[in-house]
């Protein structure tokens, strides 16, 4: 692009660092454990063969099926191009560029910051405490001009749930001032922890969901925003006229059928078993210092020299996600739970890594916090 054209762009777009998605980071491998995708997929058939007509903006079959699944009324459900579009729609609906702010608590999901930056909205961060819970007093001190607070639970990348009592306190301190967005992208792996039933009590609560993780449909690009009918109506004013293509709506409706949901629950069961197995095996690797299994389809582990372990596995075609630059996560890698075969390949590669020398070996045992 010529310099002159670049100069025409908005200043914050020129300076924008795009989201480093797992796909953009590249890599050449056959064991992809860096994007929290489900490791296997189901086959779908389109029920429609022609596509000359525009689709519905909010396909009824998809909305009704998700409302049933979540225990909500259809008018409390919005569907979009992934949960990522929900993150962005909320910023566009609630934040005045150059004046308002969004608040989030690193280490956490990167898109809250990227979307805010793209719209010229201030990103205010309040780091999680050492135990990866919310620092409520610090949040309370930083709420001026904040319109949205994003809370990810289970949190990506740390995997832990945010204490429900803290979330209630956050909702109390933001009432009438800001919207609290609970990102439940991984909630199917710990359904008991959902706060969706709180929507009745808190009109300023929004819940984000996706078909990309437990439903094994990351390639489909379909997500959901759950909220009061009032919030959904605001978002419908600014959403694209046809956010879901007809094939996407068709497949999403199938995934949300009773059989699709039963298949998803079996997938979750398998994954939880494989997660427990992988956790145990990781603890036997000399280069691994600590394992934090969390509640999602991924886990964080700390190793003696994360960057060299990461690089060595990368060179062997095993692609993990390096989290060591995130606050509080030095020497931490994130691994998506793969198939048993994939997990075994990772363990074999990790066992071959140099471990701690006896002199530098920690005296603590490899316990999870
Ligand atoms: C994967 C992920 C999303 C995005 O989901 P899509 O529906 O694929 O856009 C949102 N939030 C978190 C925390 C995620 O990990």
From TrEMBL:
EC number: 2.6.1.9
Positions carrying N6-(pyridoxal phosphate)lysine: 213
Domain of life: Bacteria
Keyword Transferase: yes
Biological process terms in GO annotation: L-histidine biosynthetic process
Cofactor: pyridoxal 5'-phosphate
Keywords: Amino-acid biosynthesis, Aminotransferase, Histidine biosynthesis, Pyridoxal phosphate, Transferase
Catalytic activity entry: L-histidinol phosphate + 2-oxoglutarate = 3-(imidazol-4-yl)-2-oxopropyl phosphate + L-glutamate
Enzyme class, first EC level, given as a word: transferase
Classification via HAMAP family: HisC_aminotrans_2
Name of this protein: Histidinol-phosphate aminotransferase
